[in-house]
Structure formats: C-alpha cells, structure tokens
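Bit of a strange request maybe. I'm writing a small parser for structure token strings and I need a real example to test against, not something I typed by hand. Could someone generate the tokens for this chain?
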Amino acid sequence: QVQLVESGGGLVQAGGSLRLSCVASRYVFSVNAMGWYRQAPGRQRELVATITRATTTNYADSVKGRFTISRDNAKNTVTVYLQMDSLRPDDTAVYYCKANVGGYDYWGQGTQVTVSS
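Reply from user aminoacidic:
Good idea to test on real output. This should exercise your parser:
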C-alpha cells in the first residue's frame, strides 16, 4: 500500500508564505508524476501544480508566478514540495498530494491552508 504523508499547512496572513511537503516512502522506484490539488468549501477539487518524474512542471493559471512545485528523489523516499508565496485569501483550501505509482493514483490525507485577509 502506498502512503503519502503531507505536512506544512497552517494559518498565514495574506502576502505570506507556506511550504507544503508530501513524502512517499514505499515503491519509490515506481513513483511517476506527483502533484498538488486543493478543495475549498463548496467547490470541486482542482489542480494546483504537477511535476513529472523528469521534473516537467505544470501550474494552474491562478498560481503561476506565486507557487513553485519541486521534487526530491532520494534512495528510499520521494518528496514533493509546494512553495507558496504571495498567498491570498482565495488560496484557502484543503491541499491534497497525489502520486501516480505504477499507473495508479494515490492521495494524501490533506492539509489545511488558511489565508487571512
């Protein structure tokens, strides 16, 4: 069973920064693309950013220039980061990590990000 452990959420004022982390610690050689998604209350889950095994990145238009996704492929773990700068109140959501492992998608438990105005 693949497990994704997320951390780094919290409360921040508008204009501030947070960094989210997501660690996959099993089947690391089969981890393909990873990404971050978010879901605000009353809204559908939406893509924030993705990164392939070759570190090609893709961003939602709403976060381009403010968020940066990166990835660290270590021997026994794969970690994906989301550096979030210039945060805005409309970035408030539960952020979920997703990993494609061996052709199957796995999700983390989610971490709350709240941006106050």
